[in-house]
Structures are given as structure tokens and as C-alpha cells.
Amino acid sequence: MPRQCSERSRSYPGRPARQAVQLTLDSVLHGNMGDDRAGVSRGHSSSILRDEGPNSEKGKGPASSATAMNPSGGADDRRVAVKPDPNEHLLEQILSRPNMLKAWERVKANKGAPGIDKMPINDFMAFAREHWEEIRSSIFAGTYQPLPVKRVEIPKATGGTRPLGIPTVLDRLIQQAIAQILLPIFDPGFSDSSFGFRPGRSAHDAVYQTREQIRKGFRMAVDADLSKFFDTVEHDVLMCRVSRKVRDKRVLKLIGKYLRAGVVVNGRLEATRKGVPQGGPLSPLLANILLDDLDKELERRGHRFARYADDFVIMVKSRRAGERVMASITRFLENRLRLKVNQEKSKVASTNEITFLGFTFKGSRIRWSDKAFANFKRRVKELTGRSWGVSMGYRYAKLAEYVRGWMGYVGMSEYYRPIPEIDHWLRRRMRMCYWKQWRYCRTKVRELTKLGTHLRTAISVGLSRKGPWRLSRTLATQTGMTNQWLKAQGLLSVKDLWVKIHYPATAR
Length: 508
What we know:
single chain, alpha+beta, four-stranded mixed beta sheet, four-stranded antiparallel beta sheet, 20 helices, 9% strand, globular
């Protein structure tokens, strides 16, 4: 019979003994376990046995209890039991019923791609009902071995690719469960200037903090770029920092297995002696744990900075101070954390010349970067391509989804001038799509006249041999496919979205 829990999960002074129970993933995910069997999962035993524990034999000595009284009537400090450390039973918390339920909901909502086992997320529940009891027992026994992650290359806007690791659904579930328990342990100790992958914080907060430092006169920035951060993390350095607050060796061993699980590249298994694969739920938290030493060092020196994952800027008042900080921080990163600084991309420059999280600064005003706007135009051209053979309803839906998401991020830009031009460009792109879709001259004339264009004007444009992009900006197409008509079809206005962000009280 497989062992249900380790020796370290037995009763100890000040904690009642608990019964070890088997918890199947079917009950974890469907919540059909009765209250009499959910004791371990909920952090208390189903029954308290007064005869159990180290002092179970009566009459052999005083029990170690917080209520033990000395002759004078007060509590004797020497005989008060040591408060149990919850970190000693982290694995039980990780595999508890509420935590696994929450982890499954997160994994299911993310709708990730299958790993190397090719199991889609919709098929995982049937697999879990059959195998979860065995998997859970192997995790407690320390024999569970994660599968390697599948390596895919994501194209970057600047050229080249970024490696992304896709774990299996089972490993994503376990990693998510680990992250949910470790986050409350580590997050309270993180720096207030760390904003990446933390509850209640976002990239916008990091940009706003940078702007506040600019307004206070810190107009020089140390923009240090970490070269291939997620691929070069030393496992020993990382695990040393994780073990500062995690004392359950079973959890440390499980995290180490995920770090060394390996990757499959083009069907070939490669060992991972370094790095934290991007794509797993545990990777962002591990990155914050490692870089927290950098945050604490910058705070100790009194620097003003903002960090989001591996992107950070340090604000100073002069170029000379910036060069000094760049040299000392580079030594700290390379010697203490064993991370490589990309000297070609790192620089000390005015805040008007740097890009941070997709934004630039003009004085103390926030603007989106040229790179972010170029990515926007490239994506919109794909969604409004005249050769994309989809219905106009589907095109409007995908375009609205992207525009709303893009404005939700870069809409904090305080630069209004390009906003109306973007709307003009979007409307022209959609008119071009309609013109290409109508195809034949008689169809173009018929559709334009239906929309209110004068017949003579519609015929003159319909017979033209000029291209769809050129004809999308003519009197005939603009009087037929008016701005109001395109809006009624589902075209979003970037101007309306920007106004709602910056003037929510007056937006209509």
C-alpha cells in the first residue's frame, strides 16, 4: 500500500494528530467529498484524540501545553509549547482540496496548448479520475517525475524568436498549486518597487512610479538589460533563495525536479542544467524570488527604481551617477546572482531616450513607444487583410477584441494627437475590405446605392480600375460606408476608448 504522507506530517506538540486519507482528483475537482473525509484538506483533523502525541502516556510527566500554570497562577514560559511552523507541512497544503480546486480553475481558464503528451485540457478530467490517486501518492513518496516541457519559438517583433516552454496539463496543475501556496509566503517580503506578477500590481503601476520619479528630478535612467534571463538562471542560486522560507524538503525537491525536467526541441530531449522555462505557472514567482536580492540591494543603497519581472530601470540625477550605478549593479548581478548583463542593450541615458514596458517618456508625460505602435499596425493589417477569407462579422469581432486589449494596455498614454488618425486609418481599412469583398462592378454599384451613394457617383467609382486601398478614400465609398454605418457594424473607435480611460466621468 503506498505511503499516504511523510514522517514529517505526523502529530507534534501543540497540534492534534490527524488521520491520513486518500484524496482523489475526482473529489478535488468536483467537490463531492463529505465533511468527514475532508479533514486533512481543510487543515484540521476530523477528530481530536487526546491520547495521541508525544505526551500520550499519562502520568509520565507534565504535558507541554500553552495552558500549563506555574504555582503563582501564571503561564510558565519554559513550558509553553513551540508554535508549529506551517512551512513544515507545505506539501499537504499544496495538495489540499481547496487549493487543487482553485488551481484547476486557473489552469482551465488559461486554455493552454497541450504538452509533449499531446493531451488537450478538455481530456484531462477523464485522465485525472483514473490516475490522480496514484499520482498524489507518488508526489508524497517523492517518486513523481514531471514530464519535459515542449519548446516552441514565439516570433519577436524586433526579429528572431523567444523560446517558450509548454508543460503538460498535469504539470501545469501541480505548478499552479505550488505557486498559490508559496505566493503568500514570499510576496509580503517583496519590494514595493517590484510590480511583475504580483496580486494588485501591474505594469502600469511600474510606469506610473517611474513618471513620479521623473517629476521629482530624477531624469537620468540606468536601463540594464538581462541577457536571456529565463534561460541562464543558475538552479543552485535560485533554490538557495527558495529554501530561505520553504523548509519542507519535499516541496524543494519537487521544485528542483521541475527545473531539471528537460525540454523537447524538435522531438529531441535536451537536459536543462540552467534556466527556468517560460510558460509554466511557477516561473514568474521563481523569477521574483531570485531578483528580490537585487531589489533589496537597490533599496539598501537608497536608489529609486521600478522592476517588472526582468525589466527594470534605476533613476538617478546625473549621468556620472548613472555610470557608477551601472558598473556596481552589473558586478552585483554577475557575481552574486550569476546573471549576465547585455552590454549592447544596456545604457545610461536621459529618460526621454529609454523605453520601459512599451512606453517612453517625453518630459514627465507618458507615451506609447514606436515599437508598440508598429506592432499594433502590423497586427491590424493582418486582421483587415483583404485576402483573409472570413466573414465580416468574424473580422469585426477579432478586430474589436484586439483593439480593446491593446488600448487597455497602452491607453494610459497621455499623447492624444495620433488618436484621431488611427480611427481614420481603421475605417479606411474596413472600407477596403468591403470593396474587395464586393468584387464585381455591378455588386459595388448596387451596394453603394443601397447605402445612399448617388448612382452616378457609384458608377464612376465602380468602373474604376484603381486598387481597393485607393478607392476606399473616395466620395462614393465615404458617403455610402459612413462612419456611423461602420460603427453600427461593430467597428470600435480608438478615440472613444482613450476618452473613457482618461476622462471616465465625462465619457459618453
